[in-house]
Automatic annotation (TrEMBL):
One of its GO terms (biological process) is fatty acid beta-oxidation. Pathway: Lipid metabolism; fatty acid beta-oxidation. InterPro entries: ClpP/crotonase-like_dom_sf, Enoyl-CoA_hydra/iso. This is Delta(3)-Delta(2)-enoyl-CoA isomerase.
Amino acid sequence: MCTLEKRGNIFFLTLTGDNEHRLNPTLIGSLRSALREAREQSTRGSALITTAHGKFFSNGFDLAWAQSGGSPSAARDRLHHMVVLFRPLVADLISLPMPTIAAVTGHAAAAGMLLAMSHDYVLMRSDRGVLYMSELDIGMTLPENAMAVVRSKVGSAAARRDLLLKASKVRAAEAVAMGIVDSAHDSAEGVVEAAVRLGKELTKRKWDGEVYGEIRKSLYPELRGILGLADKVVTASSKL
């Protein structure tokens, strides 16, 4: 599951426990509920840091839950259900009215990696953990909204190729060089500390959250369109 805690102007969204933080309907629902709470409680100058306990940031969709449906057709239906549920979670992050930081303290694979990349900034530990789009290895295509996240957030065509067509397991230093991760740090604690420093730096700017969210959506027009996020004009009238 997950918890949401507010310290000053920073929200800490934490995937709790020492499991793989597999994304099933229960966890996706819990994450969306936490993001709604953060949205409702946000003020000018808020920020969000997402992190996780244990070895994994998130190991992607809960395939065991999908397979527990019994028949192969039921498993496919359950997998499709998770894909459908995950899309609005990405939309929640892309439209959230505050800067967002993923403090990737462990492995992030498949939908777990997409979850991290749906944040504005991605920080990663260098002593352990990889980023890994596993779909080619497990024989599964990616939905269009997942491809839009990769195209929007990974600028290098070569990096996208290696992620998706080589199923590379990318460690932190390489991820920084590929432009997927903003910075690498020596430990899980170091990642979170760096995320907090960045969060405090961003909150000092006291940006209007609604304006921030609208500019973010406009930055990724393909992703905005696929997610069905409406575009609107916002002006911070106090600055005019």
